[in-house]
Specification:
This protein is mostly helical. Helices cover about 65% and strands about 5% of the residues. It has 7 helices and 2 strands. The chain has a two-stranded antiparallel sheet. α6 packs antiparallel against α7. It starts with 18 loop residues before the first helix and ends with a helix.
């Protein structure tokens, strides 16, 4: 009767046979196949998703510890106010000239982009690329801002609504400034 050979317990175990090695290999293949020859920072995106999950979990824990009941549904006025405030704060953080020092460690200046806004690109190296993409993308930033404002409404409703009202007024003022500029251009022929 032939016995199957048994592994030598003293022999080194191949890294590919360990669960972590198999997972690492799977992730490496997935990244290579997904990227299709492009440099896509999936690891950075995964870290950003984990960071966002931790961020929202911390807010949810704070809300729960506060003991305030959650509303059955958001009021339409709060949704509108949150939308406008999220829009304005996201653009302020990701595009405004005045906030460029916050983005500078992760981005590089390219050119002006509209009134008081900048076009910047994410720095290509390591984790800075993902942070740079987040720091220059108002759509990406709006997820973080909306979550923060929603948590703020649950924890400090009066103060948060006051701040959101100011951001909404700023968005309205911006729209009026742009409309006025277009009207002047139209009437003067510039």
């Amino acid at each position: 009767m032939n016995k199957a050979p048994t592994a030598d317990p003293a022999a080194p175990v191949s890294e590919d046979h360990l669960p972590a090695g198999r997972l690492h290999g799977l992730l490496r293949r997935t990244r290579r196949e997904y990227a299709a020859g492009h440099d896509r920072p999936l690891g950075g995106y995964l870290a950003a998703m984990a960071g966002f999950a931790g961020y929202t979990a911390a807010w949810a824990t704070a809300v729960r510890l506060r003991g305030r009941p959650l509303p059955d549904r958001p009021e339409p006025w709060d949704v509108a106010l949150t939308s406008i405030a999220t829009f304005r704060l996201s653009r302020l953080l990701t595009k405004a000239s005045v906030t460029s020092p916050l983005r500078a460690p992760f981005t590089r200046y390219v050119a002006p982009q509209g009134p008081a806004e900048l076009h910047e690109e994410a720095k290509p190296e390591g984790g800075r690329h993902t942070a740079g993409e987040l720091a220059t993308c108002p759509f990406c930033m709006s997820v973080w801002v909306a979550s923060t404002l929603t948590a703020g409404q649950l924890l400090w409703p009066r103060a948060t609504r006051t701040a959101m009202g100011a951001l909404a007024a700023l968005a309205g003022a911006d729209a009026l400034q742009l409309a006025y500029g277009r009207l002047i251009d139209k009437t003067t022929g510039d």
